[in-house]
Amino acid sequence: MIAPAMNTGPEDRRSYRELARQQVRIQRSIDLQHLSRLQALVDAESDRNPRVAVDIEFHVDSEGLPWVTGTVQVELDLLCLRCAEVVDHPLSAAVNLCIVNEDETDAAELSRLAEDRDLLVVTSPTLDLAEVVEDELLLAMPERLCSSDPCERMPALDYPIAGSEYVEVEPANAAERLEQADDQTGSPQRENPFAVLAELLDPDAVDGAKTDSKK
After folding, report:
1. Domain coordinates of the chain in residue numbers?
2. Among 76, 36, 70, which residue's Cα sits nearest to residue 56?
3. DSSP state, 102?
4. Residue 83: is its pLDDT beyond 60?
5. CA angle 36-40-44, nearest 5°?
6. pLDDT confidence of residue 80
């Protein structure tokens, strides 16, 4: 898979080739306020001040290509879209990316490299470590936060009528609802307006009507 080119910023920019050549390992904690896209997903009323634990290292493979590998993890108070409850969710991602400069690599080579590895495509000789971390955590975000299905916190979708112990099932169509209303009120059953149309469309009924009129 080829990741989109990063929009690198001026802060915390490091030469990834130099990091890989020196086989640098980075262990740090990043405040969530520096990861604005990830922070936007956190419940606004949360009083937690989460920090992302980062443990990554750089190296060069047998082809001379720089790699970044490791793990990033954090615990966030996220709002579940299924039950509207705040969920304490641990989020982690394994980082295993081959770094490729888009300006120095043609499309054919990018396609070849992407066949058996995940690529981090950059447009600068330096990269923003915080952005790499944020990208990987966003990719690891689950589609839904509830671990059980159905969701244990999901509110009930049907409610009993006040003063009754059960909810009566409403008839499926308009004709049944009309007939039920007549039974409950004691009103005579209404004539079906389509009965006349049915008789007009029935040749036998029409012929019978003509015979009766002649008599």
Report:
1. 2-139, 174-214
2. 70
3. G
4. yes
5. 125
6. 74
207 or 95, which is more confident: 95
Look-up: residue for tokens 């029409």? 206
Nearest to 138 by CA among 20, 3, 215, 38: 38
Closest C-alpha to 38, from 145, 140, 143: 140
Sign of CA dihedral 103, 106, 107, 112: negative
Residue 162 pLDDT greater than 50, yes or no: yes
Q: Which structure tokens are listed for 176?
A: 């049944």
Q: Which residues pair with 79 in a beta bridge?
A: 86
pTM of the model: 0.61
Q: What strand order describes the sheet that includes 25-31?
A: 2-3, 119-122, 86-101, 66-79, 51-60, 25-31
- Please state the length of the chain: 215
Higher-confidence residue of 187 and 86: namely 86
Looking at the DSSP assignment, which residues form a beta bridge with residue 68?
Answer: 58, 97
- pLDDT at residue 11 above 50? no
> What mean pLDDT comes out for the span 154-163?
54
CA 114/CA 95 separation, integer angstroms: 16
Type of residue found at 11:
E
| Residue 7, pLDDT score | 39
- Per-residue burial over 165-199, b if 16 or more Cβ lie within 10 Å, else e, is eeeeeeeeeeeeeeeeeeeeeeeeeeeeeeeeeee
Considering only CA atoms, which of 135, 101, 19, 109 is closest in space to residue 68?
19
